[in-house]
Amino acid sequence: MIYRPMYVDKIMCYVDTPFVKILTGVRRCGKSTILKMIMEKLQTEKNVKASQIASYRFDSMEYEDMTSKQMYTELKGRLIDGKKTYFFLDEVQEITGWEKVVNSLASDYDVDIYVTGSNSRMMSSEISTYLTGRYIAFHIYTLSFAEFLTFKSRYKAVSDPKAELTEYIRLGGFPATHLQDYLQDEIYTIVKDIYNSTIFSDIVKRNQIRKIDQLERVVKYVFNNVGNTFSAKSISDYLKSEHRKIDNETVYSYLEKLEKAYLIHRCSRYDLQGKEILKTQEKFYLADTALRYSVLGYNSDSVASSLENVVYLELCRRGYAVHIGKTDGGEIDFVASRQNEKLYVQVTQMIRSESTEKREYDRLLSIRDNYPKYVLLTDDFAGGNYQGIKTMHIADFLLSNEY
Questions:
Q1: Which tops the pLDDT comparison, 9 or 383?
Q2: What is the pTM of this model?
Q3: Quick one: which of 130, 159, 186, 227 is 20 to 30 A from 152 by CA?
Q4: What is the CATH superfamily name and number for domain 5-139?
């Protein structure tokens, strides 16, 4: 196992607290492995005995027909008198009513509970009802650029980060694809399988969707338009132009289901003058850039939007709430807020003309506050400061500890 301190250290801070620790995220992002890391740390650093740890993987056939009552009986049978029991419940959403079981155990016994899940049932109203104020959620993402370099260094020499960024964009960050030196086609085969299992298990089967072809056309439109603002109506109009009739509500429903399966992230626009979130013309970003290429094929023309996607995910990993900034002069790619902190980010592949340079910097200069502002690009000579705006290579920004 390759240690992922970004998550493990954060979760370990809540060991032996009364909160249920809930790990969510897209399929195969590493949630199960992080549970194993925590189990290992409990034994090596907290002197917890192996007998005190009860681990279950509920997507196993062994538990296919298990009811919540049976789950409660099974887990209760693992309690140890006089000692705290540590429960690790992987893919717990497979058991209908698991929230009641977890709440009962947490309320009545000396336990510490960790659960994972890959779809919206992990964040449903039932959790709010049964676990109000009693859980902490951790969103697990695919590998960051720094983690990608760490994984790769275990089996292959790592070159200059600026050169490695190209490969990271193309191959993505699903942990399973970077455990050995896979070829690009092999990686896309693995990612396509993750995509298919998510679409058919977490969306089609769970929601009893009959028009699968229609859903997949919506998915491909979103994947093709990463980083572009659009609406449900935009998709509906596009499909109608291809003689595929679909109403706006159906499109909106599909987008919501893709979000709940963690395949895509919605990024709303924020009016920097009116200080309000706008409900129209949002952007969507993918859980991992490799999803796009495994489904649609690799296209070098999409690199600019994939760079934007990577920066968006990195800001989210670091705990920022991220929006598109709307100003009178245009849009700021990202306005990222975290408690009392804020930063503004423009992402561009490269600046090829004075007009492009003016556009990227002027939008940031029009914001009259003292929060950090960045222009990120992939130019070889990226770096420096322009009227207080930091110019950085995207690779350097992704690896930086200064924000």
A1: 9
A2: 0.94
A3: 227
A4: P-loop containing nucleotide triphosphate hydrolases (3.40.50.300)
